[in-house]
Amino acid sequence: MRSWCVLVPTAEGELVRRFLRDRGLLQKHLAIQREADRLVIPTVSRVEIGLPAEEREFDEAFAPIRSYRDVIRIPDRVRPLLPTSFDVIGDIAVLKIPDELAEWRDEIGRAILAWNTKLRVVAQDHGVAGEHRIRRIEVIAGEDRTTTVHVEFGLRYQVDVARAYFSPRLGTERMRVAERVRPGETVADPFAGVGPYAILIGRRRRPRRVIASDANPVAVEFLRANVAANRADLVDPREGDAREVLGEIRPVDRVILDLPHSAMDFLPEAVAALAPEGFVHVYGILEAADRTATTVEIQRIVEGEGRRLRHLLVRNVRSYSPTQHHVAFDLRVGRA
Known about the structure:
By secondary structure, this protein is α/β, with parallel strands linked by helices. The protein is 24% helix and 35% strand. The protein has eight helices and 17 strands. The N and C termini lie far apart (80 Å).
């Protein structure tokens, strides 16, 4: 491609390149040439900066695509509204799209598929709703499906992102909890979903058994399939209400309450299900100012069940919104 350029001594090349770039004068998609002791830097037009300028033929430069933003074609005025992150579950990208970008959502979907050729589906997340807190999903690009296989720590999970909730962002937290399970423990996971906590514990630790249950029959269908596919023989999959299941299986050594928007509602039953000494992992979506009040409430609930809170560890799992965090509370509960 023919373009204007400036001929720059090699020692001054980077300084001049930055000068041109910062003023929008650098022809970024063309490759800089090197000859003898100078560089030939392509420019968008003839520039007068005290250096020789002429027209030459240039090769296209290779520009690595670091984000779908590099390939998308939308007006500059709405570009700042583009999502900066999204979930990748198997070969499906799931993202929230602001209302202001609604008319460009097809272009967003196509750009994501062009950016990452391993992805086959792009789906818009319209928020979590319903009794089982399932994402409202709409496919906007790629294959018309919502099922996939997600791999986490070498384990494979069949998932339907439109019918059973799954978050790939919690893999590190799942491993953190799994590593705390001691040999011979009986673990209850009453909000098991498709099984990422339960199967990880069953395969990577040495529990006596893991009772994994969920009230969503579709999630349990996938849970059973994933238990079989991963040969997680120590996992006992069940369908049922969390309170009822906890009442049936007591006593247990550890309970995982991974339902952050309402897990505290189930803490009394979790504490009541524990052996004389046991652990509970309970989660919440909280403002920073709410952590102290939640800690006080946990103490009250434990004592209300006639038990003693021997230790409490509080940690942020991840940022949930500009003012909220997904917070983990690790309880060690003993006799009163």
